[in-house]
Amino acid sequence: VWQLDAASLSDANKALRVLPRGLRPYTRGIRMVGRAVTVAASGDLVPVLAGLEQCGAGDILVVEAETTEHAVLGELFATEAIRRQMAGVVVYGLCRDTATLAQLPLPIYALGTIPRGAGGTRLPVTQQSVRLGDVEVHPGDILLGDDDGIVVVSDAELDAAVETAEEGDDAGAAGRIPGHLDARLDGFGPGVGEKRPHAARPV
């Protein structure tokens, strides 16, 4: 099990991307680790559904909702994410069915809630870079999230952060990141995901 948390990763390199603090998890105490599948929703459900259909085990759906008037995720899409054994969902926008979302064994982050659902008429735009606040997320980026927030890294940034911790150059990071993290990819395929029952399974 990968024990690295968001604070430890950020300590290893304070220049790493951190998603806006307004993104909060509906369920506390569960870690999210996986690769981004990105969606520019344009305030519509069709792109979100298209993004879900591209997700597999260990993936994280990252949605730039582009609306603050409608929810682009609810119980139906969230349960589909669980069926696909995804590692989590990040919505830079609003959700609904929050009482249910909070009880699901799936990390879901959003800016807030609203009962009004979005429509379904637009053509999907997926697997392009999206902007969440002032942070850009690219398809295939690795996201690590917990109660503190979400850190976004490329493969190279992750390797460098772990190497820094192993060398012990950063006292704060070295005190919390175990040196055996080179094994973090063992058992994982192209999608990095934590081996947890609710999230990723080995590919």
SSE arrangement:
Blueprint lengths: L5 H7 L4 E2 L5 E2 L6 E9 L4 H10 L4 E6 L6 E3 L1 H9 L4 E8 L2 H4 L6 E6 L16 E3 L2 E3 L4 E5 L2 E5 L1 H13 L3 H4 L29
Parallel strand pairs: 3-4, 4-6, 5-6, 6-7
Antiparallel strand pairs: 1-11, 2-7, 3-10, 8-9, 10-11
Description:
- The chain starts with 5 loop residues before the first helix and ends in a 29-residue tail after the last helix.
- The protein has 203 residues and is an alpha/beta fold.
- The strands form 2 sheets. Strands 1, 2, 3, 4, 5, 6, 7, 10 and 11 form a 9-stranded mixed β-sheet that branches. Strands 8-9 form a two-stranded antiparallel sheet.
- It has helices at residues 6-12, 45-54, 75-83, 98-101, 155-167, 171-174, and strands spanning 17-18, 24-25, 32-40, 59-64, 71-73, 88-95, 108-113, 130-132, 135-137, 142-146, 149-153.
- The radius of gyration is 16 Å and the shape is globular.
- The longest helix has 13 residues, at 155-167.
Describe what is shown at a glance.
With 203 residues, this protein is α/β, with parallel strands linked by helices. It has 6 helices and 11 strands.
Q: Structural class, from helix and strand content? A: alpha/beta
Task: Report how far apart the termini are.
Answer: 15 Å
The low-confidence parts are 169-203
Number of strands: 11
Task: Output mean pLDDT.
Answer: 84
Shape: globular
Order of helices and strands: HEEEHEEHEHEEEEEHH
Query: How is the biggest beta sheet arranged?
Result: 9 strands, mixed
Q: Please report which band the strand proportion falls in: under 5%, 5-15%, 15-25%, 25-35%, 35-45% or over 45%.
A: 25-35%
**What's the Cα radius of gyration?**
16 Å
Helix segment count?
Answer: 6
Helix share bin: 10-25%
